[in-house]
Recover the amino acids of this structure.
């Protein structure tokens, strides 16, 4: 299974950050997996943003829930992240990953997103 993030590397404050994760080698509708977004701000640890599961249901981190939307395109085998009203504090490396029963078993390489005017 391979995951690849894509999207703009620079977003202006107050705008919406949009990223897409393209999955190959496995279907995002396969039972038992949660397709996740995770980020790592500079100098900080990994932070879970949320996920969309095989059924299409979603979960968002409480701290980001009001600004986050995760959706999917099953025909393209992609899932996407939208984070609205961004500030410089949203600057981070954003990863997509597959969450299995116990752990994240496949990751994308990560994409740097900078929030700046």
């Amino acid at each position: 299974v391979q995951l690849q993030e894509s999207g703009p590397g620079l977003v202006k404050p107050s705008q919406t950050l949009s990223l897409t994760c393209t999955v190959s080698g496995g279907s995002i509708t396969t039972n038992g997996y949660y397709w996740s977004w995770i980020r790592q701000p500079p100098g900080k640890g990994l932070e879970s943003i949320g996920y969309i599961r095989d059924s299409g249901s979603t979960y968002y981190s409480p701290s980001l829930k009001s600004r986050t939307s995760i959706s999917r395109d099953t025909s393209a085998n992609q899932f996407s992240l939208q984070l609205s009203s961004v500030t410089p504090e949203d600057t981070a490396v954003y990863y997509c990953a597959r969450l299995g029963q116990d752990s994240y078993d496949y990751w994308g390489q990560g994409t740097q997103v900078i929030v700046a005017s």
About this structure: DSSP finds no helices and eleven strands in the chain. The radius of gyration is 13 Å.
